[in-house]
Design brief:
The structure is a homodimer. By secondary structure, chain A is mainly alpha-helical. Chain A folds into 2 domains: about 60 residues, Arc Repressor Mutant, subunit A, CATH 1.10.10; about 150 residues, Four Helix Bundle (Hemerythrin (Met), subunit A). Helix content of chain A is about 65%, strand content about 5%. Chain A has a 3-stranded antiparallel sheet with strand order 1-3-2. In chain A, strand 2 and strand 3 form a beta hairpin. In chain A, helix 4 packs antiparallel against helix 7, helix 5 packs antiparallel against helix 8 and helix 8 packs antiparallel against helix 9. The first copy, chain A, is globular, with a radius of gyration of 19 Å. Chains A and B meet through helix 3, helix 4 and helix 7 of A and helix 3, helix 4 and helix 7 of B. The structure holds a DNA duplex.
DNA sequence: CGAAGTCAGAATTTCGACAAAATCTCTCCC
DNA sequence: GGGAGAGATTTTGTCGAAATTCTGACTTCG
């Protein structure tokens, strides 16, 4: 009757369902970097044949979340601290460029959306528990929306898609490091400062603040990752 | 006996071979944008089964060169003038950011490689025929290398890979427009100016020149594309 | 004792057939 | 004459098995 019968399981095809699940398993860190992905085991584990599984893996490889070795199957993409550095730099460069262009081109609607996104983000608690950190899915969603809203007026769809992908890869590193990311750091203030600079059309400051925002998180994650993997 | 028996046909797997051929057919414009890609026809045409073909298509879809419609197969990705605009903007933003960082971080080896790449490019003729334009594959290869050399020191592998992808998509639009790209325009001088600014560590000027370089080409292509497709 | 060659075992890749979904066509009814 | 609906056709998505390739251990030779 209703269009969205169930929030889960409404995947039109098995391959896409497997792709989504596998992707989430890699991003959340449940599948360790470098892990060999044996087709037979996966097929059994996810309850699908070889064809959809292979298609999902192929897609993941194209996205950079898996690695393909011809005639030797697939592996979960590596995730070394040294690679994290390059990822952060890519993110900073791409997002700062998009942000500056967004500030240059953004109209009133962009400003409205940005203000709204920040307000919604501030209304929520970052942690579900005030004593120890417990991810708040709603906050995460609003956080994503806020950062997207910042860049959205840049008029470069491919670049935005690229930023989304880097964001996801960064999420993977965060999950791998298991960084609590709840240090003495006023994230809300950082967001407010970035939004303020953007709304003031101060591209230089906004970009610098955004870069700091990412580099700081990156440093935490990198430290934690390095400590645990030598 | 020799490691590289033949320059062609050394594809380890059928799926990758088909992927490469299909990719080239899309990039070169032989397969029109929006064209329906029927699995059976393709399989027959490329001499492969459904499995490798499907895998190749899936990969192309992830790269953005094909479009997937669940339960309705694949199509060649659209290519409208309006999308070209966004592509150019993405390219300019991404490459300028990479170039500026490259100029900031580049060492002596980077300078050497850049000088070398420009020299090799200048040694070749852009057209094989001096009367009417005929693509010179060697020049194209050196041109690619030159632009890669510019960005290579930025230390952001993902961003570089992204730039490569955008470059390919741009090549597709050029092929579709069939732009002769041989107008009264001193491309060599433009390259020289960009290289000079980069070697002088003048990031602002270099980025501005690079942006002009792309926007100018984009304008030509867009005009030709718009004229032909309404 | 070390290195190259060889041979089973395991895994990936590919093929052909089956099932499910979408598109098309033709008919029937308003 | 036009639109809706049922059936046939085409096309996609999936499965299980065959063919090719890689891995690892054992043997043999220098």
């Amino acid at each position: 009757m209703s269009q969205a019968a169930s929030s889960e399981g409404r995947d039109p095809t098995l391959a896409t369902a497997v792709h989504r699940r596998l992707r989430e398993d890699i991003l959340s860190g449940r599948l360790a970097p470098g892990l060999k992905l044996k087709l037979r085991d996966l097929a059994e584990s996810y309850g699908a044949g070889a064809s959809p599984m292979r298609e999902a893996l192929s897609k993941l490889a194209a996205e950079g979340l898996a690695e393909r070795l011809e005639h030797r199957g697939f592996r979960v993409a590596a995730a070394a601290p040294s690679q994290l550095e390059g990822l952060i730099r890519s993110r900073v460069l791409a997002e700062c460029a998009a942000l500056q262009e967004s500030i240059r081109l953004g109209d009133a609607a962009w400003e409205d959306a940005l203000v709204l996104a920040e307000h919604r983000l501030n209304r929520l608690a970052r942690s579900l528990d005030s004593h120890r950190f417990a991810t708040n899915p709603e906050w995460e969603a609003c956080h994503l929306r806020f950062h997207q809203a910042l860049l959205e007026a840049c008029g470069a769809p491919q670049l935005l898609a690229f930023c989304d992908r880097l964001r996801e890869e960064a999420r993977r590193y965060r999950a791998l490091a298991n960084t609590v990311a709840y240090p003495d750091r006023d994230v809300a203030a950082e967001h407010a400062a970035i939004a303020r600079a953007a709304l003031d059309r101060d591209a230089e400051t906004a970009a610098a603040l955004l870069a700091q925002h990412y580099e700081r998180t990156g440093a935490f994650v990198g430290a934690d990752l390095g400590r645990r993997a030598g």
